[in-house]
Amino acid sequence: MNAKELIARRVALELNDGDVVNLGIGLPTLVANYLPEDVTITLQSENGFLGLGPVTEEDPYLVNAGGQPCGMVPGAAMFDSAFSFALIRGGHVDACVLGGLEVDQHANLANWMVPGKMVPGMGGAMDLVTGARRVIIAMEHCAKNGAPKILKECTLPLTAKGKVSTIVTELAVFEFEDGVLTLCEHAPGVDLAQIRASTAADFAVSPDFAEMQISQTGMPS
Amino acid sequence: MNAKELIARRVALELNDGDVVNLGIGLPTLVANYLPEDVTITLQSENGFLGLGPVTEEDPYLVNAGGQPCGMVPGAAMFDSAFSFALIRGGHVDACVLGGLEVDQHANLANWMVPGKMVPGMGGAMDLVTGARRVIIAMEHCAKNGAPKILKECTLPLTAKGKVSTIVTELAVFEFEDGVLTLCEHAPGVDLAQIRASTAADFAVSPDFAEMQISQTGMPS
Amino acid sequence: MKSKELAVDRIAEHLRDGMSILFGGFMGNGTPKAIVQAIMDSGVKELTIIGNDTAFVDTGVGPLITHDRVRKVIATHIGLNPETGRRMMAAEMEVELVPQGTLIERIRCGGAGLGGFLTPTGVGTVVEDGKQKITIQGVEYLLEQALRADLAIVQAHKADRAGNLRYRLSARNFNPIVALAADKVIAETEHLVEVGEIDPDDVMTPGVLVDYIVCH
Amino acid sequence: MKSKELAVDRIAEHLRDGMSILFGGFMGNGTPKAIVQAIMDSGVKELTIIGNDTAFVDTGVGPLITHDRVRKVIATHIGLNPETGRRMMAAEMEVELVPQGTLIERIRCGGAGLGGFLTPTGVGTVVEDGKQKITIQGVEYLLEQALRADLAIVQAHKADRAGNLRYRLSARNFNPIVALAADKVIAETEHLVEVGEIDPDDVMTPGVLVDYIVCH
Fold it and tell me: Would you call B57 a catalytic residue per the annotation?
């Protein structure tokens, strides 16, 4: 199982039956494939609807928040973008799952720009991270060059300040417990020393520190 | 013709074809009866629709802003109260016609409460007077006890400050021209002296001061 | 997912003395009758009720006033229910009068995660008392703050079992907005249909906002 | 009342160099194609365009960027149109990036007569630079200001001759909000129907907001 699938299968266990969830583009989108069978969630799409589903028949009037063709489930509801962000900021989205460039031990997230290099715009990310009840960062533990992405202080421009709830990587799961970055789980075959070596942030270790469980539902990718 | 009908027939000439208009309860409502035949207006109702019309068949789901059964015209549109006041404050209502307890020479209006006596609440009046492009006050020139209602300074709590455009009474029509209360028309058989005697405010007299014209359309009431 | 259907006689489990309740409706039109009756029957008191108006003595939320269940009213107009005015004058009940556009926008802010907004309405009137004034590009505005409640009660014409709602004609009024701005939302409907029977483009309040549906 | 129908070749009469244009659409989905083409054909330049994103190089408002008609873009995301990024980096075009919820709410305020609003989005980020911060009940908010434009262009799925509009599925997005916030509104539609053929409860943008309808 590759790192992305492992992360997606672990994040799938974070979601509760009935949750309204916004999944970011890329890795977070995979999470929907691995939901336990007794968990039904409603996917929110920033451009203006609830009940996002897989493409069934292509309809030029229906795209997801990445501008790609998508489908919808029975009971879907459409609205305008002002209403969409009323839902997002107003605490009506139980969780958002997003990738991260950097997360720091103050629960800050940077994931929208690299000055001088990548300036795509924040789209709905700042509102999602600010407004969702839980912010789950699903990302590979280190950058491609091996540098830690979980830091003492973010170096890139922030997406939001102090809003991250949970970090899931292919090595570990961290929670912010009373504002303290806390290591809760390690991936199978990964030990604390390895996590420490790959993490620049200071963190506590949970008294319940244990091996990561992952969703067994869904086809392997 | 009684005073109210005269006022309503005069106000009817203030409205232009295509205008979106909010008519207050009472005398202002009469205006719709006297619109010239080449003038079609769209009536807005604060509770949330455009295209208010006379009752055709009573529907328990359709009431006007006074809570009374009403009808709607073809092309009517329904919306929620937040959208309704977005229209009102946002300058999408061309004119509102309201009664007044007092208007003063600074274009201030008082029409929502008499302290210690009548405190019904302002409802949508403050938003209408603040947001409508034109505020036309349709009222009898003096109170029942003969006291002037067009004053130097309002004595009652204001509905809005400096927002009145036009005052139509059974004696005269005033406009605020560059902020100056200006007498523009007198009713048939009424002279300047009579208007001065019934008006406490200072006012200019328009160089075009002339006799009031009124709409000849519609059945006499 | 668990069912959202709620029997009328179970509404009381969601009520408590002193709670705040946002209600839909305009002069009673669009106010959920069965829920108001259940509030009456439950005996809860000391309520703060928030909505456009207090209707007539015997319609909408009127009976809650008449039967002494309300500690405070936040509304735009109380003129058609003389009981509200009498209790206000006698200081038996607190009444906060708010311009209609300001009230609905305060509720929308409460539901949309906004702290407040700048409105020109009320500038130069008693409404500005105690409020911050902010001038932008030469125009003076009042800073009005968000408003939420413990519970919102709404009347829908049609609902599906997932809680997607449609309102009808002028009964829409405050309903879709109050459904955004409370910790718990109970909707009353005359027509309960299966999930999928309301076209996604026709939903006026998405089901995720609605906790319970009362069908009568 | 005068007809609102506008031939595609008359759109140019409503355009001028340097004007500001609000547009509906999300990655091109819901952006009025024929109107954008008419803007292209008219040759107007130095435009300020305001909407969610600049789509792709050849969709939505993308061609206006590629063909050098735009002086300034106010948007939330420009990542899928590399021409926007290139011109921004080369300082050939000004780009103001705004969080999506903040942009749509600024436009709504502009259309609703509100001066601005308080949002928690952007606090502690570069978005707060130069903005007033206001704390309410312990929560810090940014004061964001209203935004309007000279013209709004919207895409409707269905329109009646009075200008009442319906949008379809995710193509609704910014359209109903931008239709509130401009001095002039031109709507494009595929299906033009008679007045009365859209049920009042199904209207998404009331006709009074729409000045012209282009049918193709």
Answer: no
